[in-house]
Amino acid sequence: MKRKIPEVLTDDERAALLEAPSTRYPTGLRNLCMLRVMLDAGLRVGELVNLEPRDINMTSGKLHVHQGKGGKDRVLWLGEDDIELIGRWLEVRPRGKKLFTTLKGGPLDTRYIRAMVERVAARAGINRRIHPHLLRHSFATDLLRDTGRLDLVQKALGHSSIQTTSIYLHLVDGELESALKFFRAGPVTAPAI
Length: 193
Description:
- By secondary structure, the protein is mainly alpha-helical.
- The protein has helices at about 10-20, 25-40, 45-50, 80-90, 110-125, 130-145, 150-155, 160-165, 165-180; strands spanning about 60-65, 75.
């Protein structure tokens, strides 16, 4: 079965998306944290809303995803900037079981996160539909570009089959095509005799 090649954020879109939330307000800080976790750990929306504070080791950056899709657990890591941002959110977040909550401490709905991503993308001036799974695709593509290791992408995403993960190879193939079309694109000249 042929699979659709996923869309991903450009570097400029990613930067604009992360600059859009205002961290002066608790909701802006929370929303930026959620965007960063989706972009830097490749979480699904359902995994994001189920995170609890105990799932992140604030010293090592270790992130434990419990009962992801297919009931599988997996371990990921967040960078220092992400941990620092989450630490700021933990200082102001209302009490509640989940890491990311409403301002009253209740759980967030996945529909809220989908709408928030679209709203923030529009505020960032991105003129196409941006959704949370596109952030996951962007994470996977960036990880593959940086490492060249499809098996690491598979593990990070929690895919059972490498076939599922292989859709990201087509994105990198497109980059190879572009690079090769312009590789030594100058006029061909015969050597002087």
